[in-house]
Design a protein that fits this description.
16 helices, Amidohydro-rel, hydrolase
Length: 481
């Protein structure tokens, strides 16, 4: 393993900043030193006044060092449909998405590379990919995404997206009796695929993690959820799912269970300190208390919630209740980017309109902690990642404070979170390995990736989804439109 020292770099310390040297040995933060002794001691940093430079020396002057952020919920293959998806709510949007979803393994590979690169260049060193599987090529899909993330070097949490009910089952029945086609694959066969994926690809020490990831209550039976719980317990896997993204899902939960989705998931044992839940827009106060009690994590995806008209998640209520919250970009056809800094900005200031008491609003420093330590907590690895702490893994990002979009100089974290930073990531390391240097990803040829994405796509405008045509009238009726 390479050792290196970052000298004279700015870090956040208490309510101010300190200039420090940081030593990395064998992929771990080994020591930190500073001349701002009292402030640094009060912030909990190890104090080593005579720290010697070891290994490669990196000049941190006029740069800000932060722990890597987590892109805690996305769907990498959606990159192929960004910019073209219709202005639909989720249920109709999904129908269109799947009518035109890529079925080519090479597309899965390229979009995973693209997702990793965009995440890295916006401050993320970890990605949770709720990966859409190609029917009949499920393990191959997972293998290809794994290969892409290994090549880039980003820390990957691959959450193969599974369901065992057909798409139309995700819309409430309302007053009418609805029948749904059986799903093409049995629940048992689906669980077998996930267990085999764990055997083949789950290598946490190598930066590749497999999660159990039923898509949500709207398209999954209890048998699938319970099978995922068993696999999670057997192999010590984290759990990931969408939860109450839309008002339609809130109505559907009442139809299916006679109670809220959160109450039901607690009853069957899915909620835990290793469970992360994307969206969580339509929860009531009792639901929020359950998330706090079970130590479940909310992944806030503000851009897709706005794009699809899903609503504004009650993030300030979650924080006040003690629920851990972190950020995700969501898939690039409901966002339509993988710019994590954009998600963090919108996910912070959006909530200023939901609570007139400004003392509850999310500050830039709180947003950074949510994006880093909050992401680590959601994946049950806060003891290893998420903060600049001696003994934790060196997943680090160095920001260039002389970049035009971060000038003139004021509060560095305020500029990063509240501004419109462009090309501000100078360097990034995952597990102590440098994968971004001088603002460029060094592990793959990004120019070749750009050319491949261009060559394998074409300019498009309008297209018609047959499935939307079949289900839209019922959707509008049941939603009172």
């Amino acid at each position: 393993m390479v050792s290196f020292t970052i000298q004279n770099v700015l870090i956040a310390a208490s309510d101010d900043y300190a200039t420090v040297d940081v030593q990395i040995v064998d992929g771990v933060i080994a020591a930190m030193s500073t001349t701002v002794t009292e402030r640094s001691r009060s912030a909990g940093y190890a104090y080593a006044p005579n720290l010697q430079a070891i290994g490669t020396v990196i000049d941190g002057k006029n740069k800000l060092l932060l722990p890597g952020f987590f892109n805690a919920h996305t769907h990498s293959s959606e990159m192929w449909q960004r910019g073209i998806m219709s202005a639909f709510p989720l249920e109709l949007w999904l129908a269109e998405l799947y009518d035109f979803a890529p079925l080519d393994p090479e597309q899965v590979y390229l979009s995973a590379l693209g997702t990793a690169v965009e995440t890295l260049l916006s401050g993320g060193t970890s990605v949770v990919d709720h990966l859409v599987l190609i029917p009949g090529l499920e393990l191959e899909t997972i293998a290809i995404a794994t290969r892409a993330y290994r090549e880039v070097g980003i820390r990957a949490f691959i959450a193969p997206l599974i369901q065992d009910e057909s798409l139309s089952a995700g819309i409430p029945s309302g007053e009418s009796a609805q029948t749904h086609e059986p799903y093409f694959r049995t629940t048992a066969a689906t669980l077998e695929i996930i267990e085999e994926a764990v055997r083949q690809f789950h290598r946490p020490d190598e930066g590749i993690n497999i999660l159990v990831a039923p898509t949500g209550i709207q398209l999954c039976t209890d048998a699938l959820f319970q099978g995922c719980i068993e696999l999670s317990d057997r192999y010590n896997l984290c759990r990931h799912s969408h939860l109450l993204e839309t008002r339609a899902q809130q109505k559907l939960a009442q139809e299916k269970y006679g109670c809220t989705a959160v109450e039901h998931l607690k009853r069957i044992g899915f909620l835990s300190n290793k469970t992360s839940l994307a969206h969580c827009v339509w929860l009531n106060d009792a639901d929020i208390a359950i998330l706090a009690e079970t130590q479940s994590t909310v992944v806030h995806n503000p851009l897709s919630n706005l794009r699809l008209g899903s609503g504004i998640a009650p993030i300030l209520k979650y924080r006040q209740a003690g629920v851990n919250v972190t950020f995700g970009c969501d898939g690039a056809s409901s966002n339509d980017s993988q710019d994590l800094l954009e998600a963090i900005k919108i996910g912070s200031i959006l909530h200023n309109i939901t609570d007139s008491d400004y003392q509850h609003w999310i500050t830039p420093r709180q947003a950074v902690e949510m994006a880093s330590l909050g992401g680590a907590k959601g994946l049950n690895i806060a003891d290893k990642l998420g903060s600049l702490t001696v003994g934790k893994k060196a997943d680090l990002v160095l920001y260039d404070l002389t970049n035009l979009s971060l000038l003139p100089r004021t509060d560095p974290i305020g500029l990063l979170v509240l501004g419109r930073p462009t090309n501000v990531v100078n360097s990034a390391w995952v597990n102590g390995k440098q994968i971004v240097a001088d603002g460029k990803v060094t592990t793959i040829n990004v120019d070749e990736l750009r050319q491949e994405l261009f060559n394998r796509s074409q300019w498009e405008t309008k297209r018609k989804s047959e499935t939307v045509a079949q289900i839209e009238a019922h959707y509008r009726t049941v939603m009172g439109l």
